[in-house]
C-alpha cells in the first residue's frame, strides 16, 4: 500500500514524513521520525508510556492513527527539555531520584507537564489523577508525587 | 457522506480511536478502509438549543464533556460519566459517539443518556432520522446503525427545573478501568413529588438498559429512603448479568442494588438543591 | 570484609543520597532500550502462537506466508535442526515441534521488512490442530490420569532455584511421582506433628491461594540479533543478566559462548521475568536465516499470555498452639503451579513456613505441578510473598484466637540468629526482630484502636501489619577498578543496572579507594569485555558485586599506595589518600597526586605498572533481609472498595549505601506487593486461556489508588556485606498481602485467604457474613 505524506508540527518544527496508513502516531514518531522517547508499553492506551501532547493536550499516541495528526501540533519528551537544559519537572525528577528502569518516565513527564499547564497549583489528589493513566512498576509513584508537587510549588512561587 | 455511501463492511469509521485501535492492534478487526471523523466540525460541537436542550456532536471527546460548563451545570451525570472513561490521555481522544457506537455493555456514557431521554440523530443516504437512545443498542457491539449511516449528534432534552442526576460505577481501580456495573439516575421533582424518574444500568445486560420497574416505584411519590431502597431492589429486574473476568453475576446484582440506592440518593439531593 | 578505610577526612562515598548519573538521560528519553534500535537493514520478527493450551499440530502450511512480498523468512520447528524434544526449559522449546502445551506457545516465526507485513504473514500460515484435553487447574493436574503436560522423561529444571541460591540443604526430588504432572517435590520434617497437634489447645486450618501474577515490567521483552560473516552473534538484549543470556542462547544454538556477545541495553524492568532466555533464541535463528539484523519486540498481549509469570501458589496450613501461646506444630502443603515447564523455587516456601517462627514440630511438603499454562519464572523474592501471606495470616489468626498482642506473639516466636532453619542450616544475622519492633513503635500502630473506633458513614476502618523477608541470593562475580591518567577511577562490571545499583557500586568504590564519588565512573560492559558478573536478581547486586567492587577498589588502592611508597620513599603503612593525593601521614606537603601515579601507568617507556584493581569473589554466606509493613485502611462494606490511607515500610538494609535509591526500592516493592494484595491476577478459563490479556484488565495499581509510601530504614550490619550492606530489592515485595488481609480482618472481622483481596471478595464476604 502506498505511503501517505503526513504534515504536522513536531517539537516546534514543521515536519513532513511518509507514513503507512496503519501507522499510529506512536509508530510514526518512533519508526519514521526517530523520536524514540515515547515508548510502547501496551499499544492499547492502558499504560501511558506513549503519552505526547497533541495540540497541547496529553494523549496516548498509540491510539491515534498517524494521518489523524495532519495539520496538528505534537510535542514529545524530546521537545520538553534536553540534557543540559532540562524542563523544571525533569530537574525535579532527577533530584528526587525518580527514575529506576526509566521506561515509563517520558510518558509520566508529559502527563505531568500537561497537568501543570492546565492546573498550575494542583492538589495531591489532582496530581494522582493527573498521572493515573501512567503505569509505573518501579517507583510506587511516591517520589513522582514529591517531584511534581515541588515543581508546581516552585513555579507558583515564581509567579507570586 | 459520499465515502460513507460507498462504504461496505470493510470500512470502519474512526472518531477517537480508543476502542478501534486496540482492536486493530490485537488483530480483531482488519478493515480495508478507515474514515476519520475527528475533523468534522459539526461532530465536535456542544450546542445549547435555546432552552430546548443540548445537541452534542458525536465526535465530542469524553474530556470535553467532563469539562463543558453547560454539561456540568445541567447534565451533570453525563459529565460524570465522561470523567470516568479511561485516563486523561484516553479521554482527550475517546468520543461520545465512539463510546455509543462501539456498543459495549459497559459503555459509561450510555446510562446517563438513557436517564436523560436522549435521542440519537443519525445521518444516512436518505437524510436524517432520530432514534431514542433507549432503542439505539440492539446487542453486544450492535446498534441500529446501517452500514451507510453515521451517528451525527445526540439531542438531549433539558431536564427542566428541580431535576438532578448522577452516574456512579464500580471499578476495582479508581482510574484506567471498565465499569463492573454502572448506574445513572435522573429525578425530577414538583412540590415534593417525583414527576419523572429514570434509572439506567450498564454492564448488567447485553445492552445498556433502563430499570423501568425502579422508575415506576418512584414516579408520583415523595422520594424517601425507603422508596429508594425499594427502587434499588426493583432495579434488579432489568439486570441479566453474566460472570466474566471483571465480576461475577452475583457481585453485579449486589452492585446494582448498592449503586442504584446511592445514585438515587445523590440525584434526589441534587434535584432538591 | 567490612574493613574500614582510613582517610584523614570522610570521602564523599557511601551513605550519600545521590541521584543516578544517567537520570538526565532517562528523563529526556535519550536512553536507549532494545526497541529504540534500528540498524540498517533491520527486519521485524513476529511469532505465530497457538490459540490452544494443549493440542497436537497436525499440519503447518507456510507457503502462502513465504510468498508474501516483504517476507524474508518463515520458520517452523522443521527448519531448526537444533530443536530437541523433551525441552527442559522454555528457551529450548523455541518453536513447538508437534504438540503445543500452553496457549500462546510459538509455532512459527516470521521476519519481514515491516511489522505489519510480518503480521499479515502470520495470518497466511495455516496450522491444523487436534485439540487435546487440558490440565488447567493444579489440583486437578496432580491427580493420576490428568492430561500430561511434559513429554515423558523430561527432566525438571532446577536452575532457577540454583540461580537464586537461596536455600541450601533441601533436596528437591526431580523425579516425578505417580501423578504425571508433579515435577518436583520436597519435604521438611522435624518432631512428631500428629502428637503435638493432638496436644494443642487451638488448632487452625486454612488454605491460602495466590493466583499467577505477572512481573509487570513496563518494557515488554525485546531483543535484536545480528550475525557477522564469521559466525559470531551479537544480541542487544533486555536482560537481568547478560552472561546468563549468553549461556542459555549458546546452549540452545549449540555454539560456543565466545561466539556470542550480549550487549545489555537499558532494561525497562525485569523483576525476575528477564532472567531466563525467552525470545532470544528464535530471534537469533531468524537473523541467521536471513543474514540480516532482526528485532523482536513482544506485544503486551503476548507478554501477558506467553510471558513467564509467577506461579500460582496454594498453601494449606494446620497449626496447633497452647492457650498460653506456646507453639506446638505446623503441618503444611505448598503447591506451586509452574505452567508448562518446570522451574519453581520450591524450598523457600518450606523454610519460611516451617522455620520463620520457632515451630518445635513441623511437616511441610512442597509440590511443583505442571499445567497447560505459560511456564513461570522468578518474580521479586520468588514465592516469598505468597508464603508469607499464608504464614503471617496464620500467625495473626492464632494471636487473635488466643487473645495475644499480634506483635508480641510474633516477636516471642520469631527466629533469632543461630536458630536452626527447617533445612538444618542456622539462621544468620538478620534484622527481623528490629524491623518488627520498629514498626510496632509507629504512631499508626499505637493508634490503631482509635482509628478503628473512628469508623463512620458506614465505612469500616482497620490497621494491619506483617513481617516478611528474603534469605538473600549469592553468585560469583567480578569487577575491575582502574586508575586513569588524570587520577579518576574507572569501575567495570557486567552488572545490568535497572534500579540504580551502579551509583551504589560507584559509591562503594569511592569509599573503598578513598576518592570522592565525582571522581568515579562506572560502566556496565558487554559479555566480550566485562568480567563475569551474575544476575541482577536475588537482592544480591550490592551484596555481592558490591564486595567485588569494594575489593577491586581496595586492590587498586593498595597498588596505588605501593607505587606512591616507592616515589615517596616511605612505608606503605604510613601513607593515606587524601583529596586526590597520596600523602605521608602527618606530613601533608609530602605527597604524589593520583594523576601523577595514573599518568606513569600509561607513559611510553614508563616502568610503573598501571593500577588495575581486580576482584572476582565467590560467596558462601547469605544475608537475610527483613521488611515489616503496615497498612491503615478504610473499607466501604457495600462495594468492597478498600481505601489505603497510609502505608509504612520498615526495612533492614544493613548499611544504607544510597538512601535515595533504597527508598525507591522500598516504595516500588511495596506497591508491587500491594498490587498482588489488591488487584492483580492472571485469570484463566477452564481451557487454559487467559481471560484478561490487557493492562486494562490486568490491573496494576495507579497513582490514584495509593497514598505516599512512608519508608523507615533500619541498619543492622550484615557481617559479610560491603560496609555492612545487605540486599534491598526483594524484601519490600513480601509483606503487603498479609498486612492488608490482617487490616481487613481488623476492620471487618472477615478473614480472607484468596488473593487478590478484590472489592468483590471483600463485599461478598461481608454480605455473606463470613
Description:
Chain A is an alpha+beta fold and 160 residues long. Chain A contains five helices and five strands; from the N terminus they run E-E-H-E-E-E-H-H-H-H. Chain A has helices spanning 25-32, 88-95, 105-118, 124-130, 142-159, and strands at 4-10, 13-19, 51-54, 57-60, 73-75. In chain A, helix 2 (88-95) crosses helix 5 (142-159). Chain A starts with a strand and ends with a helix. Chain B is of the alpha+beta class and 273 residues long. Chain B folds into two domains: 2-156, Uridine Diphospho-n-acetylenolpyruvylglucosamine Reductase, domain 3, CATH 3.30.465.10; 163-272, Enolase-like, domain 1 (2-Layer Sandwich), CATH 3.30.390. Helix content of chain B is 33%, strand content 25%. Chain B contains eleven helices and 13 strands. Chain B has helices spanning 2-5, 20-25, 62-67, 69-74, 76-84, 88-91, 96-101, 110-115, 212-218, 225-235, 249-272, and strands at 11-14, 33-36, 46-48, 54-57, 119-124, 127-132, 137-139, 142-143, 150-156, 163-170, 181-190, 193-202, 209-210. Chain B has a five-stranded antiparallel sheet with strand order 3-4-9-5-6. The radius of gyration of chain B is 18 Å and the shape is globular. Chain B starts with a helix and ends with a helix. With 770 residues, chain C is an alpha+beta fold. Among the domains of chain C are: 23-31 and 475-615, Aldehyde Oxidoreductase, domain 4; 34-132 and 220-267 and 274-306, Aldehyde oxidase/xanthine dehydrogenase, a/b hammerhead (Aldehyde Oxidoreductase, domain 3). Chain C contains 21 helices and 26 strands. In chain C, strand 10, helix 7 and strand 11 form a beta-alpha-beta unit. The longest helix of chain C is centred in the last third of the chain and has 28 residues, at 541-568. Chain C is globular and about 85 Å long. Chains in contact: A-B, A-C, B-C. At the A-C interface, helix 2, helix 3, helix 4 and helix 5 of A face helix 1 and helix 19 of C.
Q: Which oligomeric state applies?
A: heterotrimer
Could you name the ranges of chain A where pLDDT drops below 50 across 5 or more consecutive residues? none
Biggest sheet architecture of chain B: 5 strands, antiparallel
Structural class of chain A: alpha+beta
**Which shape of chain B, going by the Cα principal axes?**
globular
The computed structural class of chain B is alpha+beta
CATH topology of the largest domain in chain B: Uridine Diphospho-n-acetylenolpyruvylglucosamine Reductase, domain 3
The string of secondary-structure elements of chain B, in order, is HEHEEEHHHHHHEEEEEEEEEHHH
Shape of chain A: globular
Low-pLDDT runs of 5+ residues of chain B are none
| CATH class placement of the largest domain in chain B | Alpha Beta
The CATH class label of the largest domain in chain A is Alpha Beta
Number of helices of chain A: 5
- Spatially, the strands of the biggest sheet of chain B line up as 3-4-9-5-6
* Helix content estimate of chain B: 25-40%
Strand content of chain A: 15-25%
Which band does the percent of strand residues of chain B land in? 25-35%
Amino acid at each position: 500500500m502506498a505511503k501517505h505524506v503526513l504534515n504536522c508540527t513536531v517539537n516546534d518544527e514543521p515536519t513532513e514524513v511518509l507514513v503507512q496508513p496503519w501507522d499510529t502516531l506512536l509508530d510514526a514518531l518512533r519508526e519514521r521520525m526517530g523520536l524514540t522517547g515515547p515508548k510502547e508499553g501496551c499499544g492499547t492506551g492502558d499504560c501511558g508510556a506513549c503519552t505526547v501532547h497533541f495540540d497541547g493536550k496529553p494523549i496516548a499516541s498509540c491510539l491515534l492513527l498517524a494521518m489523524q495528526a495532519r495539520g496538528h501540533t505534537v510535542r514529545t519528551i524530546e521537545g520538553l527539555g534536553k540534557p543540559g537544559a532540562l524542563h523544571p519537572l525533569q530537574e525535579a525528577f532527577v533530584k528526587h531520584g525518580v527514575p529506576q528502569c526509566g521506561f515509563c518516565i517520558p510518558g509520566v513527564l508529559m502527563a505531568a507537564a500537561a497537568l501543570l499547564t492546565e492546573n498550575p497549583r494542583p492538589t495531591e489528589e489532582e496530581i494522582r489523577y493527573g498521572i493515573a493513566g501512567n503505569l509505573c512498576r518501579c517507583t510506587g509513584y511516591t517520589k513522582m508525587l514529591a517531584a511534581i508537587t515541588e515543581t508546581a510549588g516552585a513555579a507558583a512561587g515564581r509567579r507570586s | 457522506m459520499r465515502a460513507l455511501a460507498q462504504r461496505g463492511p470493510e470500512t470502519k469509521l474512526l472518531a477517537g480511536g480508543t476502542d478501534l485501535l486496540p482492536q486493530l492492534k490485537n488483530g480483531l478487526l482488519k478493515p480495508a478502509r478507515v474514515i476519520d471523523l475527528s475533523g468534522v466540525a459539526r461532530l465536535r460541537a456542544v450546542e445549547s438549543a435555546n432552552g430546548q436542550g443540548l445537541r452534542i456532536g458525536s465526535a465530542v471527546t469524553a474530556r470535553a464533556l467532563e469539562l463543558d460548563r453547560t454539561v456540568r451545570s445541567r447534565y451533570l451525570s453525563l459529565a460524570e460519566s465522561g470523567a470516568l472513561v479511561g485516563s486523561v490521555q484516553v479521554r482527550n481522544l475517546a468520543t461520545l459517539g465512539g463510546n455509543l457506537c462501539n456498543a459495549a455493555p459497559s459503555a459509561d456514557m450510555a446510562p446517563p443518556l438513557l436517564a436523560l431521554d436522549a435521542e440519537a440523530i443519525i445521518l444516512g443516504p436518505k437524510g436524517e432520522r432520530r432514534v431514542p437512545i433507549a432503542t439505539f443498542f440492539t446487542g453486544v457491539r450492535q446498534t441500529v446503525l446501517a452500514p451507510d449511516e453515521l451517528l451525527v449528534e445526540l439531542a438531549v432534552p433539558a431536564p427542566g427545573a428541580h431535576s438532578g442526576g448522577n452516574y456512579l460505577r464500580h471499578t476495582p481501580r479508581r482510574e484506567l478501568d471498565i465499569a463492573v456495573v454502572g448506574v445513572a439516575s435522573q429525578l425530577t421533582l414538583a412540590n415534593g413529588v417525583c414527576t419523572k424518574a429514570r434509572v439506567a444500568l450498564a454492564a448488567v445486560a447485553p445492552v445498556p438498559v433502563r430499570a423501568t420497574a425502579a422508575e415506576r416505584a418512584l414516579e408520583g411519590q415523595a422520594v424517601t429512603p425507603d422508596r429508594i431502597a425499594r427502587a434499588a431492589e426493583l432495579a434488579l429486574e432489568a439486570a441479566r448479568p453474566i460472570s466474566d473476568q471483571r465480576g461475577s453475576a452475583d457481585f453485579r446484582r449486589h452492585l446494582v442494588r448498592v449503586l442504584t440506592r446511592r445514585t438515587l440518593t445523590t440525584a434526589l439531593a441534587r434535584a432538591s438543591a | 570484609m567490612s574493613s574500614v578505610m582510613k582517610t584523614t577526612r570522610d570521602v564523599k562515598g557511601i551513605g550519600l543520597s545521590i541521584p543516578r548519573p544517567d537520570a538526565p538521560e532517562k528523563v529526556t528519553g535519550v536512553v536507549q532500550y532494545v526497541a529504540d534500535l534500528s540498524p540498517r537493514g533491520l527486519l521485524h520478527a513476529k511469532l505465530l502462537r497457538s490459540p490452544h493450551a494443549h493440542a497436537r499440530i497436525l499440519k503447518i502450511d507456510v507457503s502462502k506466508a513465504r510468498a508474501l512480498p516483504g517476507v524474508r523468512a518463515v520458520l517452523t520447528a522443521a527448519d531448526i535442526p537444533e530443536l530437541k524434544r523433551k525441552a527442559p526449559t522454555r528457551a529450548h522449546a523455541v518453536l513447538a515441534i508437534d504438540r503445543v502445551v500452553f496457549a500462546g506457545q510459538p509455532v512459527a516465526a516470521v521476519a519481514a521488512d515491516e511489522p505489519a507485513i510480518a503480521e499479515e504473514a502470520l495470518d497466511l500460515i495455516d496450522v491444523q490442530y487436534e485439540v487435546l484435553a487440558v490440565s488447567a487447574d493444579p489440583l486437578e493436574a496432580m491427580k493420576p490420569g490428568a492430561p500430561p503436560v511434559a513429554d515423558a522423561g523430561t527432566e525438571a529444571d532446577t536452575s532457577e532455584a540454583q540461580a537464586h541460591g537461596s536455600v541450601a540443604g533441601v533436596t528437591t526430588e526431580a523425579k516425578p511421582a505417580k501423578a504425571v504432572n508433579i515435577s518436583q517435590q520436597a519435604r521438611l520434617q522435624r518432631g512428631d506433628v500428629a502428637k503435638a497437634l493432638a496436644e494443642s489447645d487451638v488448632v487452625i486450618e486454612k488454605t491460602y491461594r495466590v493466583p499467577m501474577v505477572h512481573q509487570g515490567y513496563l518494557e515488554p521483552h525485546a531483543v535484536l540479533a545480528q550475525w557477522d560473516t564469521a559466525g559470531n552473534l551479537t544480541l542487544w538484549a533486555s536482560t537481568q543478566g547478560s552472561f546468563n543470556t549468553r549461556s542459555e542462547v549458546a546452549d540452545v544454538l549449540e555454539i560456543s559462548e565466545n561466539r556470542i556477545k550480549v550487549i545489555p541495553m537499558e532494561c525497562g524492568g525485569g523483576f525476575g521475568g528477564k532472567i531466563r532466555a525467552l525470545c532470544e533464541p528464535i530471534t537469533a535463528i531468524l537473523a541467521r536465516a536471513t543474514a540480516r539484523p532482526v528485532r523482536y519486540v513482544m506485544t503486551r498481549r503476548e507478554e501477558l499470555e506467553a510471558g513467564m509469570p509467577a506461579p500460582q501458589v496454594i498453601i494449606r496450613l494446620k497449626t496447633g498452639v497452647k492457650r498460653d501461646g506456646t507453639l506446638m506444630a505446623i503441618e503444611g502443603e505448598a503447591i506451586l503451579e509452574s505452567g508448562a515447564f518446570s522451574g519453581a523455587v520450591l524450598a523457600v516456601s518450606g523454610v519460611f513456613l516451617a522455620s520463620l517462627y520457632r515451630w518445635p514440630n513441623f511437616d511441610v511438603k512442597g509440590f511443583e505441578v505442571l499445567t497447560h499454562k505459560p511456564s513461570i519464572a522468578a518474580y521479586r523474592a520468588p514465592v516469598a510473598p505468597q508464603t508469607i501471606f499464608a504464614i503471617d495470616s496464620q500467625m495473626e489468626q492464632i494471636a487473635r484466637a488466643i487473645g495475644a498482642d499480634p506483635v508480641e506473639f510474633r516477636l516471642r516466636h520469631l527466629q533469632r540468629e543461630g536458630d536452626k532453619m527447617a533445612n538444618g542450616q542456622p539462621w544468620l544475622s538478620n534484622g527481623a526482630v528490629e524491623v518488627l519492633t520498629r514498626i510496632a513503635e509507629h504512631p499508626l500502630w499505637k493508634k490503631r484502636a482509635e482509628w478503628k473506633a473512628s469508623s463512620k458513614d458506614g465505612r469500616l476502618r482497620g490497621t494491619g501489619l506483617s513481617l516478611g523477608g528474603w534469605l538473600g541470593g549469592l553468585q560469583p562475580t567480578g569487577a575491575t577498578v582502574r586508575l586513569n591518567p588524570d587520577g579518576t577511577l574507572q569501575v567495570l562490571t557486567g552488572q545490568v543496572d535497572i534500579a540504580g545499583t551502579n551509583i551504589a557500586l560507584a559509591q562503594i568504590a569511592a569509599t573503598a579507594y578513598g576518592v570522592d564519588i565525582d571522581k568515579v565512573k562506572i560502566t556496565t560492559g558487554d559479555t566480550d569485555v566485562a568480567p563475569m558478573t551474575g544476575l541482577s536478581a536475588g537482592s544480591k547486586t550490592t551484596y555481592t558485586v558490591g564486595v567485588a567492587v569494594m575489593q577491586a577498589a581496595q586492590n587498586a588502592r593498595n597498588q596505588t599506595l605501593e607505587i606512591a611508597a616507592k616515589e615517596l620513599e616511605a612505608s606503605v603503612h604510613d601513607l593515606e589518600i587524601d583529596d586526590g593525593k597520596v600523602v605521608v601521614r602527618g606530613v601533608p606537603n609530602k605527597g604524589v597526586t593520583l594523576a601523577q601515579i595514573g599518568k606513569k601507568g600509561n607513559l611510553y617507556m614508563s616502568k610503573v605498572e598501571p593500577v588495575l584493581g581486580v576482584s572476582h569473589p565467590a560467596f558462601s554466606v547469605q544475608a537475610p533481609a527483613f521488611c515489616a509493613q503496615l497498612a491503615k485502611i478504610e473499607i466501604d462494606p457495600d462495594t468492597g472498595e478498600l481505601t489505603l490511607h497510609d502505608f509504612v515500610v520498615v526495612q533492614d538494609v544493613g548499611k544504607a549505601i544510597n538512601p535515595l535509591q533504597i527508598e525507591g526500592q522500598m516504595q516500588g516493592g511495596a506497591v508491587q506487593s500491594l498490587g498482588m494484595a489488591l488487584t492483580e491476577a492472571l485469570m484463566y478459563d477452564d481451557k487454559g486461556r487467559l481471560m484478561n490479556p490487557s493492562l486494562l484488565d490486568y490491573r496494576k495499581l495507579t497513582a490514584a489508588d495509593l497514598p505516599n509510601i512512608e519508608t523507615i530504614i533500619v541498619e543492622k550490619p550484615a557481617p559479610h556485606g560491603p560496609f555492612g550492606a545487605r540486599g534491598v530489592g526483594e524484601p519490600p515485595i513480601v509483606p503487603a498481602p498479609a498486612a492488608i488481609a490482617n487490616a481487613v480482618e481488623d476492620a471487618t472481622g472477615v478473614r480472607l485467604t484468596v488473593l487478590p483481596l478484590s472489592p468483590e471478595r471483600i463485599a461478598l464476604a461481608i454480605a455473606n457474613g463470613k
